[in-house]
Amino acid sequence: MKAKTKNISIVLYKPKYAGNVGSVARAAKNMGIENIIVVGAADMDTEEMRKRSTHLAVDVVNKIQYFERIDEALGSFNYIVGTTSRLGKARGPFISPRAIAEQVVNISRKNKVALLFGPEDTGLSNDELRYCHAVVTIPTSRDLKSINLSHAVIILCYEIFAASITASEEGIPKLALSKETEGMYGQIKTLLADIGFLNPENPDYWMMHLRHLFNRAGLLSREVKIIRGICRQLEWYAHHKKT
């Protein structure tokens, strides 16, 4: 079962160099992925992008979508895969490109999938990774851990391309959009703060764990609506109990 590549997008968050974006365009097209989104870097040199992409992928550069904010860029996606070279409990659990590839193939059949890459110098922060359903780390030598942006893109895209050749016909239902789950997380955070569950000095600690829990589950739109309905009822009860 082949991946539905028209449902897969490369999302570059605050890339520093236009040439790298052009190289990403060519790398992605090599593996059949032609959707690229650039976030927070709308003033990049388009000609430099075209030059580095070569004439073979200039059409991909010409179709790049630009967004100011990451939540807007990711809002219409059902499943988001983040990438990082920095490890830590707050950033995991982690999965290898090969392990995530078959999941992406199956999920892309009915869902829009974003492959999210951070700035070349710093990578994605915890704030950006919180949007992700899965976080990928590419194994490298201890002597040199960092990988060029386009190299990281082609490694992940290659694994998806290769997995699509042998992937099963397992179907993944259409998942909730990122903007739906983000609204749910905001409502849960408000409710938990109101009832005193969250530590005011570090309210995101438990929210991080809840995000990991729900992201692993892969919520459907109707399930998000059920959770939000429960939250509304609890908010009503908590408010009336106080009064």
Task: Provide the descriptors you would attach to this structure in a database record.
about 240 residues; alpha/beta; Alpha/beta knot; Helicase, Ruva Protein, domain 3; 2 domains; globular
3D architecture notes:
The protein has 243 residues and is an alpha/beta fold. It folds into two domains: 5-166, 3-Layer(aba) Sandwich (Alpha/beta knot); 178-242, Helicase, Ruva Protein, domain 3 (Orthogonal Bundle), CATH 1.10.8. The chain has helices spanning 18-30, 46-62, 70-74, 97-107, 126-129, 149-166, 178-194, 204-217, 221-242, and strands spanning 8-13, 35-39, 65-67, 79-83, 94-95, 113-117, 134-136. It has a seven-stranded parallel β-sheet. The chain is globular and about 65 Å long. The mean pLDDT is 90.
Topology of this protein?
Elements: E1 8-13, H1 18-30, E2 35-39, H2 46-62, E3 65-67, H3 70-74, E4 79-83, E5 94-95, H4 97-107, E6 113-117, H5 126-129, E7 134-136, H6 149-166, H7 178-194, H8 204-217, H9 221-242
Parallel strand pairs: 1-2, 1-6, 2-3, 4-6, 4-7, 5-7
DSSP helix count?
Answer: 9
Overall pLDDT: 90
Main sheet? 7 strands, parallel
Shape: globular
Q: What is the CATH topology assignment of the largest domain?
A: Alpha/beta knot
CATH superfamily of the largest domain: SPOUT methyltransferase, trefoil knot domain
What is the CATH domain class of the largest domain? Alpha Beta
- The string of secondary-structure elements, in order, is EHEHEHEEHEHEHHHH
The rounded distance between the terminal residues' Cα atoms is 58 Å
Number of domains: 2
- Percentage of residues in strands: 5-15%
Q: Structural class given helices, strands, pairing?
A: alpha/beta
Poorly predicted ranges (pLDDT <50, ≥5 residues)? Answer: none
CATH architectural label of the largest domain: 3-Layer(aba) Sandwich
Radius of gyration over C-alpha positions, nearest whole angstrom: 19 Å
Read across the widest sheet, the strand sequence of neighbours is 3-2-1-6-4-7-5
Oligomeric grouping of the chains = single chain
**Total beta-strand segments:** 7
Helix percent band: 40-55%
